[in-house]
Design goal:
The structure is a homotetramer of 193-residue chains.
Chain A: H1 3-20, H2 40-65, H3 72-86, H4 88-97, H5 102-130, H6 135-140, H7 144-159, H8 164-179, H9 183-192
Helix pairs in contact in A: 1-2, 1-3, 2-4, 2-8, 3-5, 4-5, 5-7, 5-8, 7-8
Chain lengths: 193, 193, 193, 193
Amino acid sequence: MKPTRVEAFSDGVIAILITIMVLEMKVPHGETLDALLPLLPVFLSYVLSFIYVGIYWNNHHHMLHATDKVTGPVLWANLHLLFWLSLIPFTTGWMGENHIASAPAALYGGVLLMCSIAYMILQRLIIASQGEHSVLKKAIGRDWKGKVSSVLYAVAIPAAFLSQKISIALYVFVALMWLVPDKRIERALSDWH
Amino acid sequence: MKPTRVEAFSDGVIAILITIMVLEMKVPHGETLDALLPLLPVFLSYVLSFIYVGIYWNNHHHMLHATDKVTGPVLWANLHLLFWLSLIPFTTGWMGENHIASAPAALYGGVLLMCSIAYMILQRLIIASQGEHSVLKKAIGRDWKGKVSSVLYAVAIPAAFLSQKISIALYVFVALMWLVPDKRIERALSDWH
Amino acid sequence: MKPTRVEAFSDGVIAILITIMVLEMKVPHGETLDALLPLLPVFLSYVLSFIYVGIYWNNHHHMLHATDKVTGPVLWANLHLLFWLSLIPFTTGWMGENHIASAPAALYGGVLLMCSIAYMILQRLIIASQGEHSVLKKAIGRDWKGKVSSVLYAVAIPAAFLSQKISIALYVFVALMWLVPDKRIERALSDWH
Amino acid sequence: MKPTRVEAFSDGVIAILITIMVLEMKVPHGETLDALLPLLPVFLSYVLSFIYVGIYWNNHHHMLHATDKVTGPVLWANLHLLFWLSLIPFTTGWMGENHIASAPAALYGGVLLMCSIAYMILQRLIIASQGEHSVLKKAIGRDWKGKVSSVLYAVAIPAAFLSQKISIALYVFVALMWLVPDKRIERALSDWH
C-alpha cells in the first residue's frame, strides 16, 4: 500500500473535522449583536481547535512524506490517530458551551494528550517499518516538541480543576510552540533537553 | 472507467461517514464529568462503528487494488455497498442513545449483515468481470472470514432479543477477527472450513 | 483549467451530499422496532434520492471524460448543477417527514427538474466549447433520456396535487430508466423520438 | 511541499463548506407550500453564499496554479483564509433566520471582509515567495477587483445599521463583479484606479 492513499483518506477526514467543528457554533435566536455574546467562548474554543487540527494536518503530511511504504500496523495506528482527532469537535463544543468550565477544559486536554500519544505511536511504527536508516528518525531528532507537548497536556488536565485559565494558557502555549518556527528557541530547547 | 475514480469517490463517502458518526455524540448540557456518563454507551457504540468502517475502508481498497476495470454493474454494486455503510451512523446513534437495547442492537446487526452481503455481491461482480484468471479470486481464496462474519451477524440479530450482550460480544468478536491478522488462526479456520 | 480539477471538486460535493442526506433520518427516541415505523417514508425518500444522486455522479463523470478543457462558463454551469443537487437533501427530508404529502412531492420534482435543466445547460456549454467535432455531442446523440426525464418531472409536479402516488411512480420510473441499461428499449424510444 | 497537496485539502474544506451551508435550511414542519415561505430569506442567503464560496474556490485555484512551491507562511495564510471562509455558513444562517436584520447583515459583511483580507495576505505571501519575477504578480496586476471588494464590504458593514438593503445590494454587486467577466468594465475601472 502506498502512502498517497493513506494521505488522501486522512486529508479527507481532517478536512471534514476542521469544518464540522463550526457546526457546534449554533446560529443564535436573537437578531442583535448582543445575541452573539454568549457565543464568544464557543468561538474562541473553535479558533484554538482550528489551529490544533491545522497543526496536525501539517505535521501529519510531513511525516507521511518521509514514509515510503505503509504496513498494516501503520495503517491502524493512523486510524487510531484519526479516531482521537475526531473527538476534538465534541470536546471543543462541550468546552465552548460551558464557558470553559473545569471538567470540559480537562477533557479537552485529555483528548489532546491522546492525539499526541497516538501521533507518537504512529511515528514509532513508521520508523520501525523503515529499519535502521530511517529518514523519519533523522528528521524528527529527539522530538522534544512532541514530548514537551504531551507533558504539558498531562499537567493541564489536573490543573483545570484548580483554574481553567492555567489549562487554557498551556493549550495556547503548546499551539504557539508549533506555530512559531523560531529556530533559536528550537535549538535552545533541544540542547537543554 | 478506471478503479481509481471509484476508489476516490468511495474514500470520500467513507471519510465523511466515519466523521459524521461523531455528530451523534451530542454535547451534554451539564459542565461536570457526571454529565458525560450517559454518553458512555454512545461513545462505545461510536468506537465499535469506527473500527467497522475502518475495516471496510481497508478491505475495500485491497479489493479495488486487485481490480483493473470497472463495469456498470460493479459501479452500482459499489454504490449499493456505500448505501448500507451510510446507515451505520444511524444505527450507531440509535443503539447508543438507548443504552444498547434489544431492537437497536438487532438493527445494528441487520445493517452490518447487509453491508457484508453487499460486499460479497461487489466481490463476485468484480471476479465475474475479470474472467477465469481473476486475481481477486485467488487473493480471497474461500473467503471464510466474509462467510463466518455474515453467519455471526445473522445469529446476533435474533440473539439481541434474548440478551443484547450476546449480540455485542459477536460484533466485537467479528471486528477483532478482521483486526488481528493471526496467520495461524486464519489457516486453521481456513482448513476447518 | 483541466477537467480533473472540476471532477475532483464535484466528486467531493456529491460525496458529501449523498452522505449528509442520511442525517435527515433523525435517531428515534423509542427503543422498540415500532419507533422505526414513522421513519419508513423518510427511509424510502432517502433510498430514492441516493439512487438519483448516484445516477448524477455516474453521468457527470462520463460527461467530464468526454471533455478536454474547462472554460469559465462551463465552470459556472457546473457549480449551477451542484447548487440544485445540493437542494436534494432538503426536499428529501421535507418529503420524508410529511409522509410524502402533495407539496413536498411537488417540490421534490421541482428540484429534480432544475437539476435536469442544469445538467442540459452544462452539456450544451461543453459541446459548444468543443466545436463542430464534439465527442460529447456524438456520445449523447439526441439525448432522449434527458429530455423524457425533464418532461416526466414537469408532469409529476402538478400531478402531486391530484395524487402523490402518480408523482412518486414517475420519479421511480425515471430512476429505473437510468439504472436499467436496456439497449432495446433505448433504441426503440430513440427511434420513436 | 507542493501546491497540489494544499489545493486538494483546500478543495476538500471548500466542498464541505458549500455543502453544509444547506443544512442551515432546516426542514419545515408544515406540509403545505406556505410552510416554505419563512425559509425564503434563508434560501436567498444560501444562494448568495453559494456564489461567494464558488467565486473563492475559482480564484483560489487560479492563484495556486500560478504558485510553484508552498512555504510555511503560505501554508498558514491558506489555513487562515479557510478559517474565515468556514464562518460563512454561520453568518449565512444567522442572516437568513432573522430575515436579514441589521446586525446579521453587518456580520455577514464583516466575515466577507476578513475573507477578502485573508485572501490578499495569502496572495502577498505567495508573491513574496516567488521573488522579483513572480508570475502571480503579473497575473493579478493592480488587483483593483480585490481592493474595490474590500472597500465595498467595509462600507456595507456600517450601512447595514441604516438600511440592510444597501448592504445586501453591495454584496450582490461585488458577487456580480466577480461573476461577470466584462473586459471593458475591467479595463475602465483599472484605468480609473
